[in-house]
Write a structure and sequence with these properties.
about 325 residues, alpha/beta, Rossmann fold, five-stranded parallel beta sheet
Length: about 325
C-alpha cells in the first residue's frame, strides 16, 4: 500500500448531490478532481449487493490471473472512456478535454512497473495516470490529493479505508423526497420502492462506516452544502490536511465556472429553494410513502422536519 497517495472518494446515492460536490471541489488548488464519475468498478464484483447497485460504481475486484494491461481495461470508467474514445456520443462532448486513452493506459502500466499488483496500487495507478495524461488540465502546481466520485460507493467505504492508508470517503446525503423527485426525471427511472430501498441501504452503510472510521469516513448533508459550501466542505478537507479555498463556493469543470451542474447530474441549480421546490414536485401519496420507508433514518440525518418545510414552501 502506498502511504504517499492521498485520496478522497465522494459517494452518494443517485441524485443526492455527489456530482455537485465534485464540481465544487474541482477548482481547489490542492486537489486534482477527476473530470467525471470515475466508476472504478469491474465486472468481477459479485456480492450480496450486486443485485441492488451496478458494479461500475463499486470498489473494484481484479482477477489474480490478469496482466496489468488487462487490469486497466477491466476498470469500467464508462463516462471518461466514452468521452475519450467516442466523443460524439458523450454527453460531455461540448467540454474540451485533451487526453488520449492509450497514453493514459501506457502511464498506468509504467506506474505499476516494479510494484505489487494489488488493488491499492492499481487504484492509485488509475488516478495518477489520469491526472498525468490530462494535458490541458489547469494545474495550480499545488495539487497533492486526488478526488474521485462514484455513486453509491459508500457501501464499500470499509474497503477503501482498508486499502488506502491516506484515503477518505466523503458521503453526501440529500433528503429522500427531493432526490426521488429528481430521479423520476430520468428516461428509465427506478420505482419508488427500488430507489428508496437503495437510498436507505446507502445511508445505513455510510453511517455505519463513519461510526467505525470517524476520521476517514465523513457524512455531509447536501442541504448544508448548498447553504454554505465553503464551510461544509472545508470542515471535511481539514481532516484530510487540505486548506479552505474560496473556489469551494462555485461549481466548476477544469476551473471553468458552470452556470448549471449539467450534464453532470440532474441537480442543475444547487440552492435551498430549488431543493425544496423539487421535493414538492411529488404527490402527497408519494411523499407519505417515502416518509414511511425512510422514517428510521430521518431523525439521525436531521430530516424529520424537512417535509413540513417543503409543504410550507409550496
Amino acid at each position: 500500500m502506498s502511504n504517499d497517495f492521498h485520496f478522497i472518494m465522494i459517494g452518494a446515492m443517485y441524485e443526492n448531490g455527489g456530482n455537485t460536490t465534485q464540481r465544487l471541489l474541482d477548482g481547489h488548488p490542492e486537489l486534482f478532481s477527476y473530470p467525471f464519475e470515475s466508476q472504478p468498478g469491474t465486472k468481477y464484483v459479485n456480492d450480496y449487493m450486486t443485485s441492488m447497485f451496478p458494479v461500475k460504481y463499486r470498489w473494484p475486484v481484479f482477477p489474480l490471473n490478469q496482466s496489468v494491461q488487462e487490469d486497466y481495461e477491466t476498470i469500467i470508467d464508462e463516462e471518461c472512456k466514452v468521452r475519450l474514445k467516442t466523443p460524439a456520443s458523450s454527453k460531455f462532448r461540448d467540454y474540451p478535454m485533451e487526453m488520449n486513452d492509450q497514453d493514459r493506459k501506457a502511464r498506468f502500466v509504467d506506474f505499476m512497473q516494479g510494484k505489487v499488483r494489488n488493488r491499492a496500487n492499481l487504484v492509485e495507478a488509475f488516478y495518477r495516470s489520469s491526472a498525468d495524461a490530462w494535458k490541458d488540465y489547469r494545474r495550480s502546481g499545488k495539487e497533492w490529493v486526488h478526488v474521485g466520485y462514484s455513486p453509491i460507493i459508500g457501501v464499500d467505504a470499509d474497503k477503501i479505508v482498508a486499502d488506502l492508508p491516506n484515503g477518505h470517503v466523503l458521503h453526501v446525503v440529500r433528503n429522500p423526497w427531493s432526490c426521488y423527485a429528481d430521479t423520476k426525471k430520468r428516461a428509465v427511472p427506478l420505482s419508488l420502492a427500488h430507489y428508496i430501498t437503495g437510498w436507505c441501504i446507502n445511508q445505513h452503510a455510510a453511517l455505519t462506516y463513519s461510526e467505525k472510521h470517524p476520521e476517514r469516513v465523513h457524512v455531509v448533508r447536501f442541504e448544508d452544502i448548498v447553504v454554505n459550501p465553503v464551510q461544509a466542505l472545508s470542515n471535511v478537507l481539514a481532516k484530510v490536511g487540505v486548506g479552505s479555498s474560496p473556489t469551494l463556493s462555485t461549481p466548476t469543470w477544469n476551473g471553468q465556472v458552470l452556470k448549471q451542474v449539467y450534464p453532470w447530474g440532474t441537480i442543475r441549480t444547487p440552492t435551498t429553494d430549488a431543493n425544496l421546490a423539487t421535493a414538492n414536485e411529488l404527490t402527497a401519496a408519494e411523499k407519505d410513502e417515502i416518509l414511511k420507508r425512510t422514517r428510521p433514518l430521518l431523525g439521525i440525518l436531521g430530516y424529520e422536519s424537512l417535509l413540513t418545510e417543503a409543504r410550507r414552501a409550496a
